[in-house]
Amino acid sequence: MNGNAPKVLLLSGFHPSAEAVSSGPKIVARVIRDLEAKGREVVTVSFENELDRVHHAEGFRPAGAEGSRVFRLTTARRILAALRHPLLPFAASARPFVARRYVEALLNGDAFEAIEVEFIQAIEALPESAWKDARLVSHDVLTQLYARRLAHAHGLKRIAAWLEYQRVKRWERRVFRKVGRIVALNAKDKALIEEISGRSDVAVRYPEIRAYINPKERTAETVEPGTLLYWGHMGRAENADAVLYFVAEILPLIRRQRPDTRLIVAGIDPPEEIRRLQGPGIEVTGFVADPAPLFRRAEIGIVPLRLGAGIKIKTLELLASGLPVVATTVGAEGVEASPLLRVADRPADFAGAVLGLMAAKAEM
Questions:
Q1: Could you give the percent of the chain with pLDDT greater than 90?
Q2: All structural domains of the chain
Q3: Quick one: pLDDT at residue 258?
Q4: Angle formed by the axes of helices 142-151 and 156-178, to 10°?
Q5: DSSP secondary structure, 238-285, as one string
Q6: Looking at the keywords, is Transferase present (predicted)?
Q7: Beta-bridge partners for 359
Q8: Staple partner for 93: which of 1, 39, 47, 85, CB 3.0–4.6 Å?
């Protein structure tokens, strides 16, 4: 990179990598690639968490130019940070604890053309005096994420969920109002951020979506009738909840009419409660290096999410690969209408949509 190239400081709440186990960090890796292609020198400050180290024990190399750095988030650091920053949400408190001084040193030592913040969790690593000069790319609206967690919490967990929701709501509103510019990844999040903040200037940047196969690769020879696919990072609570909900509430309704229905649960880090589903009619794959064969094989993709927030990359990937998809309203968030997409929330309606697609396929 030319030493005279304009510099961009990019803070990412998670480490950007094409090999990341979640879609968000892959999106940020492409953002860095595009900035470098435009002649920018990108200095990145990013964070790796415990799950990253399960799959990358050697740690990540910093992405970007000289001065880039990856900070490790550990359980001990999270606890210390929560004690030091009691007013910050737990999701945001560790990053300023480990990285604020380093970011301040970067700002004092270099002139940056722009400051980019990917994931709102990273904003607190930036001194608040610099927020007005930053552009925040919001991958998820945390207020919505924590509201849904609260709605599904019970007992003592509900009290803890309510307290954290209140902290997130106050903090996120303050960030949205103080940061210079905001970009959402879909029109739904743009409207939600503007409602929370009172702003009217939120931009939208739709992410680049990968199609794992050309839809023409799905033929009568490859597609297995009655095979459903759930595709996602199974280590995330919202994905595990979606699969357990589907198996308990929806799959039995489908099997009343189609007892031959099979479910493939594909994705890294399935917890024990998901692994226990493995058996006749349910296949739990764990990590899949190349999901293309599964995308050719499945008749229908399912996204029965009840938790989570932000644009649903998994739904877009299924659609881009030519699979008909049945999703809940949450599972279809940020996804534009498509002739391949059916949206249903009640278990009976979801099952009916799946059966309708199966019947339509059988008649073709």
A1: 78
A2: 7-204 (3.40.50.2000), 215-363 (3.40.50.2000)
A3: 97
A4: 170
A5: HHHHHHHHIIIIIHHHHHHH-TT-EEEEE-S---HHHHTT-BTTEEEE
A6: yes
A7: none
A8: 85
Residue 231 — pLDDT band, cuts 50, 70, 90? Answer: very high
For residues 96 and 94, give the distance between their C-alpha atoms in angstroms, rounded to a whole number.
6
CA–CA distances in Å: residue 94 to residues 28, 100, 185: 20, 10, 25
- Which sign does the torsion angle of CA 58, 62, 67, 71 carry? negative
Residue 306 has pLDDT above 90, yes or no: yes
Q: Measure the CA–CA gap between 136 and 118, rounded to whole angstroms.
A: 6
Distance CA 182, CA 197 (A): 11
> E strand or H helix at 174, and its extent?
helix 156-178
Dist CA 113 CA 8 (whole Å): 6
Closest CA to 258 of 226, 300, 212: 226
In sequence order, the 6+-apart residues with CB closer than 8 A to the CB of 144 are 192, 309
Q: How far apart are CA 288 and CA 231, in angstroms?
A: 10
pLDDT at residue 204 tops 80: yes
Lowest mean pLDDT among 26-30, 176-180, 264-268, 300-304: 26-30
pLDDT in tens, 65-84: 888 999 999 889 999 999 99
Q: Which two tokens stand for residue 171?
A: 């903090």
CB 89 within 8 Å of CB 167: yes
Tell me the pairing of strands 262-266 and 341-343: unpaired
How far, in Å, CA of 188 to CA of 311, rounded? 8
